[in-house]
């Protein structure tokens, strides 16, 4: 048990390097209102010299992005009729909140399906460790939450449900990694890292952002392993890809 705990703590402790972009405290209940973060150099531990095998992206034939009807990821909203529908309606199964929670679960399952797919680790030659998987999870969460915000208040509310499901899933992942002691402390640290990265990515897309700012932020959080703050030409290609 103790060796496993030691390995897990080492893996998660390296994630603290992400927090250079994080502000001191963020509320779990307000992901949509994140303060600006500083841009201090980060100390990461990722394979910056790993080759990127872009050719592997084109091995599979083109296909529709729509889920097939028999996909385990496809979840259709049940459409009960008669007495069953009446009872479920009385139990608030079709309420706005219940419908949003079910929708948020569907969205998060799609996020997890993307993060856990072997292809992304294979193409970018990434080792599937907790810290790299978490950095990719944060990146995908940012993409989804940013898109949902464009839908106005309803999108932000739906994003809040997605974020709460994400928090529960991260807690389960940390526990499975062997960290049962000081779990709350690690969750607060991961929360700080999450919001720090979200602010960094959002800032990199502002009109006054520096050239390649987003690629540099991605490189720091996912690929960098030697503590440098700026990737060279080869390393920048990996982040652009």
UniProtKB/TrEMBL annotation:
GO cellular component, one term: mitochondrion
Ubiquinol-cytochrome c chaperone domain span: 124-228
Biological process according to GO: mitochondrial respiratory chain complex III assembly
Protein family membership: Belongs to the CBP3 family.
Protein's UniProt name: Ubiquinol-cytochrome c chaperone domain-containing protein
């Amino acid at each position: 048990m103790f060796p496993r705990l030691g390995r897990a703590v080492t893996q998660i402790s390296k994630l603290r390097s992400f927090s250079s972009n994080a502000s001191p405290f963020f509320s779990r209940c307000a992901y949509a209102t994140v303060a600006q973060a500083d841009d201090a150099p980060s100390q990461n531990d990722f394979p910056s010299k790993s080759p990127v095998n872009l050719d592997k992206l084109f091995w599979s034939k083109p296909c529709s992005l729509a889920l097939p009807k028999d996909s385990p990821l496809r979840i259709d909203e049940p459409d009960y009729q008669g007495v069953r529908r009446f009872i479920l309606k009385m139990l608030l199964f079709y309420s706005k909140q219940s419908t949003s929670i079910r929708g948020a679960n569907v969205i998060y399952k799609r996020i997890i399906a993307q993060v856990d797919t072997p292809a992304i680790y294979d193409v970018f030659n990434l080792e599937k460790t907790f810290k790299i998987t978490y950095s990719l999870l944060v990146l995908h969460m940012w993409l989804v939450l940013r898109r949902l915000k464009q839908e106005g208040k309803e999108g932000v509310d739906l994003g809040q449900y997605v974020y709460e499901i994400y928090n529960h899933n991260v807690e389960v992942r940390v526990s499975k990694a062997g960290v049962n002691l000081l779990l709350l402390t690690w969750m607060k640290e991961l929360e700080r890292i999450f919001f720090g990265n979200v602010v960094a990515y959002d800032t990199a897309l502002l009109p006054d952002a520096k050239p390649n700012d987003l690629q540099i932020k991605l490189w720091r959080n996912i690929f960098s392993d030697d503590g440098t703050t700026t990737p060279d030409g080869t390393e920048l290609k990996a982040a652009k890809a």
